[in-house]
Amino acid sequence: MPYSAGDASKGAGLFKTRCAQCHTTGAGEAHKVGPNLSGIFGRKSGQADGYSYTAANVNKGYIPGTKMAFAGLKKDKDRNDLVTYLKDATSLSSS
Asked: Cα separation of 63 and 89, whole Å?
């Protein structure tokens, strides 16, 4: 299950159908039910300015029982495609 670069265009489609209901990716975009993901790579969890995190989530890794109800992606290829898209879409230098 290690990460390997995937297809960013397929990842964009996955984001649109699976993630965009709750998250945005661009710098300065508003939070939704979930936080804006801009700059997510390289920061600790619970660090998006202006988002109300649960106390358990601030500066932690994956935390069961947070607001996020998403069960995840079963296929390695889908996860790789989504992460490839997010690495570009949430990069502070591409915003």
From this structure: 24
